[in-house]
Every structure is written in structure tokens, then in C-alpha cells.
Amino acid sequence: MRPLRDPARHTPGDGRNIDESLGVLRGEGALEKISTLDEARPFERRPWRSDATAEEDSYYGLPLLKETVWQWPIPVYFYVGGLAGASAALGAAAAVFGNGDLRRIARGGRLIAAAGAVASAGLLIQDLGIRRRFLYMLRVFRPTSPMNLGTWLLSGFGACATLALLPGRIGKAFACGSGVLGLPLTSYTGVLLNNTAVPLWSEARTTMAPVFVASAAASVACAFEMMPLGRRERRVIRRMAVVGKLAELVNDIALERQVSRVERVARPLHQGASGLLWRSAKICKGTSLVLSMVTRKPGWARIAGGVLGTLGALATRFALFHGGKASARDPHATIELQRA
């Protein structure tokens, strides 16, 4: 191993001691912050013990898992990707089965899908830190890896969604292609979280993906609720909004019940910032559902329902995101889940 030559080149105050002549601290690993440097014998003092049984029930009270280094672009991508995929599917269905009466929905679905595909790629690249890493993920095709499969899915969806903006039959054909690829795009992020060792995410193995699918359907309905539409188009969107938001709430309840099988695992959904986000999301989505169920309502009520539904969908993603981080920091959640 080559010795570190110049101490002045090391990252100041950082226990990783990066020699800038040999390497540069960039990408996801650079997002990790070291609050206190390790001591020579850190287990002598054990300052992290919160109770008398912490040492007995876990390894000196230390987390068994490393907290994810993902930052805010990831939960935003969960929302934008789901919105784009559901918009493409809705736009394709409106173009094929609408008989020309749902032209605004078909056109709006294509525009939202194309914009969402570009924004999703940008959010992923922002989190990766280096643009080339997104291309590196396409060097192999591994269907057993949700992350690799999602990268290919997003790339194919983005190409089809962009070409769907072309006029005529060519655009319609690519719109159908983006609609087909958009359906798995709404759910693969939930599968990705389920394949981790984080207790909150892994325990919701059968409900996380349905939550994301229902939330994507409700999100696209909320987006169209805030747009000017014709009478038949408004009726179609209203029905989709009611069904999507109701399914969203039902799946939220199912997820919460599933992870509550082990009380410690469900704690992030009831406490802290993630618990506040989770409760706020349910309130926003419930209020939005009530507004969507009203048949004759003023324009401000439609906009309010769309805004509340959008905020609820975003809050759901951030609640699960921060809840997963809190779950990884809790060693007792991991141990109790394994014992259960």
C-alpha cells in the first residue's frame, strides 16, 4: 500500500484521511458526515448507551446497519418517476380508447411523462454525484437487481416518452410504448426498498409497491385536477382521483399494519419527523379525497384537492425515506425483527 506522503493534502478534520494526489472524495460516499472521530478504544466509554439493557440487547447499543447516504433527490425521484409513469399510461389509454374526446388528457400525459423522465434522470445523477455513473449502470443487464433493472427501465421510458411528442402515428406508437414501460416504473422503487436490510423497508415487502402504484395514480389525477379540461375529461379524471386516492389510503393503512407486526419496526411511522410526515400525508390525502368526491364544486376546490393530494404523495415518500433512515439507526428494530 502506498504511504500517504503529504499530510497537508489530507481532508482536514476528516477521519477518512483522503490524499488528494491519490483520490478525490466525490459521489455518494462524500455525502457521509463524520460527527466524531473514532477513538483508539471506543468501547471503553460507551457514550451511546441510552439505557441499562442497551449492551445486553445489542452490540454496545451500536446500529447494526449503516444508514443510507441518499439525500433529498431520492424521495423526490420516487414521486416524479411515479407521476411520469402513471401519466404515460393514462395518456396512452386516453389516446387509444378515448375516441378523440380525451385529447387534452392524451397530450397532457405525454408532456408530463417527457418532463418527468428528464427530471428523474437529473435527480438520479444529482444523487450519484458523477454523471458517468448513470451510464456505468447500463454496462450490464441484471434482471435480479431492482436498481439495475430500474436504470434500464428509466432509460427506455425516457426515450419513448421523448419520442412520443412527435406528431402523427409515430408519436402515438411511442406513447403506447412509454405507457407500457410507465406501469412498472411506478412500482419498481418500492421493490428496490424492499430488497434492503432496513427493517421498516424490508418488513413492508408486500405493501410498499402497491402504496407507490396507488400514490402514482392519485398523483397524476391530482395533476390533471388542476388543469383546464372538458366536461367528459373532467368526469374521467374525477373518477380516477376518487379511486386512486381511496386506494392510496387503504394501502397506507395496510403498510402500517404490516410493519406494526413488530412494534419497534413501526416506531418511525409514529415518532419523530418521519411520524409527523406520515400523519400529515394521511390528513392531506383524506381531505383531498373528500374534495374529489364532491360532484359540483368551484374551481378553487378542484385546485385545493390537487394541491393537497400532491403534498400528501410527497410527504408519503419523505416519511418512508426518513423512516428508513431512523429504522437503520435503531439496532433494537433489527434484532426484534429477526427474533420475530
Task: Pick out its properties.
globular, mainly alpha, 340 residues, Formate dehydrogenase/DMSO reductase fold
Note down, in words, how this protein is organized:
This protein has 340 residues and is mostly helical. The chain folds into 2 domains: 71-186, Formate dehydrogenase/DMSO reductase fold, CATH 1.20.1630.10; 197-340. Helix content is 65%, strand content 0%. The chain is globular, with a radius of gyration of 23 Å.
- Taking all residues together, what is the mean pLDDT? 84
Largest sheet: none
Q: Tell me the number of structural domains.
A: 2
First-last Cα distance: 45 Å
Percent range for helical residues? 55-70%
Integer-rounded radius of gyration:
23 Å
| Basic shape | globular
Summarize the structure.
The chain is mainly alpha-helical and 340 residues long.
Secondary structure elements and their pairing?
Elements (H helix, E strand, L loop, with lengths): L53 H4 L15 H25 L5 H26 L2 H6 L9 H18 L4 H18 L2 H7 L4 H5 L4 H18 L5 H29 L3 H4 L5 H22 L5 H31 L1 H9 L1
